[in-house]
Design goal:
This protein has 126 residues and is mainly beta. The protein is 0% helix and 49% strand.
């Protein structure tokens, strides 16, 4: 089992950047593939990016390709989401998830993630 906590959200102007972090307070993240998802009120959680346990395999939603980068540092037990060229439509609560099954695969399917953090708010103003 792993407990996750996101940080790094905030208010930024369109075109700006933020770096989100997802740290494990218990457990070892190197056992899991990890993913970032986002959610706005009234909508389902939406896939953003995922990374395999080693960091070799990554997978991105089409709407963030070329703007967001997912990475991980297993020595620090932390996963990151670098978000550049932010747009107002990126405004959401961002969650990280841990996927214990098949950690070699970076998956866009929320149902495959067993553990979630509490989320961090990202607001992009126009």
């Amino acid at each position: 089992q792993v407990q996750l906590a996101e940080s790094g959200g905030g208010l930024v102007q369109a075109g700006g950047s933020l770096r989100l972090s997802c740290a494990a307070s218990t457990g070892t993240l190197s056992s899991y593939a990890m993913g970032w998802f986002r959610q706005i009120p009234g909508k389902e959680r939406e896939f953003v990016a995922a990374i395999s346990w080693s960091g070799i395999n990554t997978y991105y939603a089409d709407f963030v390709k070329g703007r967001f980068t997912i990475s991980r540092d297993n020595r620090k037990n932390t996963v990151y989401l670098q978000m550049d060229s932010l747009k107002p439509e990126d405004t959401a609560v961002y969650y990280c998830g841990a996927k214990p099954q098949n950690p070699f695969a970076a998956s866009p399917l929320a149902d495959e993630y067993d553990y979630w953090g509490q989320g961090t708010q990202v607001t992009v103003s126009s």
